[in-house]
Amino acid sequence: MGRSVLVTGGNRGIGLAIARGLADAGHAVAVTHRGSGAPDGLFGVQADVTDTEQIDAAFKQVEEHQGPVEVLVSNAGITEDTLLMRMSEDQFTRVIDANLTGAYRVAKRASRGMLRAKWGRFVFISSVVALSGSAGQVNYAASKAGMIGMARSLARELGSRNITANVISPGFVVTDMTDALTEDQRAATLAQIPAGRFAEPSEIAGAVRFLASDDAAYINGAVLPVDGGLGMGH
Ligand code: NDP
User: Count of domains in the chain?
Assistant: First the structure.
């Protein structure tokens, strides 16, 4: 059955692959962008996830276009990597605001419609570093670990209404985000990945498609690693 889906940051990278994967599965898919416009064939709404009013306006457009959001994929995210000694409080709070508070903002807005419908799926795109930690990513790893606590709390609050909240923790995926890695960082990382390669964005999309499907109705509060074995299940 086709659902009304919203993917934040679905204009490029992993989010775009997720949006395309869900559209291919027969869902009505909207994506947020911050001015780049909608990718071909997808419904686009402009919203920065750090801005509650923009989020509300975007949800209203989605509701008019395809009905209340039934599947929310919280994917928008940023990095501002540097060692703790050099990390300013602004660098810390900017990443938390976009990655974690942004996920809270869209989840809260989406929960209204899901509660009314007594059906919903939250999928949060976290990261393998949420559980392993990562030097130079105190802000990012904290934001991604926070998503897990948030999803599990949502699972407890809303699980009795046919609403699930799950987390996907990708390892390294070929996108603009990982293009920023130096050759040394890339080689050191690859040596740790049993698969011996980075993921393609479509491999994250496959996991989201599953969690959004009826087959995943009894999976709640789970963290699903899609990392080629990097985190060995964590
Ligand atoms: P990209 O940098 O390629 O894309 C990031 C996306 O997030 C863009 O669509 C961007 O929009 C959007 N975005 C960023 N900040 C905001 C904001 N404040 N409001 C709205 N949208 C925003 O990243 P990836 O595709 O690689 O990453 C997607 C998600 O997957 C992120 O949450 C990331 O942390 C996570 N992840 C990525 C991994 C990787 O190896 N690439 C590994 C593990 C997790 P815009 O185009 O406007 O900038």
Answer: 1
> Who lines ligand 1 at CB under 6 A?
8-9, 11-15, 32-34, 36, 48-50, 75-78, 98, 102, 125, 127, 170, 172-173, 175-178
68-96 average pLDDT score: 98
- On whether the CB atoms of residues 117 and 85 are closer than 8 A, the answer is no
Name the strand (E) or helix (H) holding 170: strand 163-170
Is the full-model pTM beyond 0.80? yes
- What residues does 73 pair with on adjacent strands? 7, 123
Q: Where in the sequence is the domain holding 46, given as residue range(s)? A: 4-224
Mean pLDDT, range 84-103, rounded to an integer: 98
And the tokens for 36? 């780049």
What's the CATH number where 182 sits? Answer: 3.40.50.720
Q: Which residue has the tokens 């659902």?
A: 3
Residue 45 placed within a domain: yes
Q: Considering the domain boundaries, does residue 18 fall inside one? A: yes
